[in-house]
Design goal:
Strands 3-4-5-6-7-8-9-10-12-14 form a 10-stranded parallel β-sheet, with no helix packed on it. A 5-stranded mixed β-sheet has the order 17-23-22-19-20, with no helix packed on it. It contains 4 helices and 32 strands. The protein has about 450 residues and is mainly beta. It is rod-shaped and about 125 Å long.
Amino acid sequence: MATKTKFFLISFYLVSFCCLSQNTFIPDDSFEQVLIDLGLDAGPLDNFVPTSNINSVTSLDLSFDVTGLIISDLTGIEDFISLNQLFVQNNQLSSIDVSSNTNLQILWCFNNQLSNLNVSQNPSLISLRCEDNQLTSLDTSNNANLNVLICERNNLSSLDISSSTGLNRLQCGSNSLTNLNVSNITNLSYLSCEQNNITTLYLENNSKLTVLLCFENRISTLNLSYNVNLTEINCSSNTLCSLNLKNGNNGNITLMDFDLNPDLNCVVVDNPDADHTTWQPSNFTNYVNSNDACSDFIPVDSLETVFGTSYTLPSLNNGNYFTEPNGMGTALNTGDVINSTQTIYVFNQTLCYSNQTSFAVIINNEDYFIPKYFTPNNDGINDVWQVYDRLNLVNNISIYNRYGKLLKFLPSTTMGWDGTYNGQLLNSGSYWYEIILNTHEVVRGYFALKR
């Protein structure tokens, strides 16, 4: 009798085990109710669903928008081994395990309470939406096929997407990113990385980019000259010093906003004379066609060449004195007395650009000084041949070419000669001068023009 009882008990447990092994445990009543509504479970609620009913399902929509039920536990999803598409957005999930759903191509789990998301076992994933969660990290190194990644409004401090080279759309705004490297994502057409702490954004390899939203970051330089398909750009509220929009596509831009970049004093564009009134800020006018031209908007004082026995530096409104270009050499101050012949530079620098002028101080005890050469190349240094007349002894000057042809007549009130004749640039070479003094004395000689 005892043996027969033992046999029946063992048989009962074996049958129970077999039955349980053919069911999937679904502890969340809302999850199970959705499966009942989909005809995947017969009900009533008992926390189990026949595994054979779910292991061939390829698409499952558990979003609150569709079901009207809030799901907080997704235990059991691991037996949906054939899933290609899983939509669980707008629920109250704090975790999700999709490691068994290796065929998954679309995963939308946005607007939950996820602090971690592991998609390393989902190599076929092409669309991942996990925005509006509490994620602090996200690893997509095994998701080479990813085409869409939306991870906005999380707590991400870094994002490595270097393995997801097929990305077409990336939205990672409203995180805590300080760096974003998309240099090898050459198919990227839509990039939204606004409201982060990004300081550098290199986009020269992203020629397919059509939309760029990077406002409210800390970007100082933005070169978009390689992005020939851009139509929408918002880079407002950054720390831009340099913005290059000269990409040959300015006429097709439908949205342009670079407002609230207080140090940005000019913008490089296709055509500075084009109509930019639809761009923001609408009152901006400092458009140029090269980055070098931006320096022209930095005010800097200009002083004429000085001839004398000494020279005291006057006060400046814009800039500071230096003995070498670009703020190098020795700094000079207002009131310093110059006692040697030299070129002095006036250099003015802002946070973004700099500008400079220069002037010569010629120290000579003679009554007048005749330069032996000049270099009229419009660099602001020695561009004009001019006799410096300390005591106003010169009445007029005539300049001739080597064949005796008069090229320029300079009364005493004329500043000098710029090396042109009838508006044409003259070649480098030797030219002759004839100086008539007020005493009617004549002084003749030659000088060199060097280009």
